[in-house]
Amino acid sequence: MNDLFELKRVPKSASDAEFSTKFEECKQQLRGYLKGKYKKWRGVAVCFRGNKDYKIEIL
Question: Rg (Cα) of the chain, in Å, rounded?
Fold first, then answer.
């Protein structure tokens, strides 16, 4: 299986709302890529806040 990754980051000082908004943006952008010849690929959205906090979702 092929994987397509989209990575985003926000500063460590970002609020929870900013972090969530950036993660949603990450997923939306990835969904836009998973079309055409990439429609059968697995998408992995990852958003980092600072060095230790992250969100990840497999689409």
Answer: 12
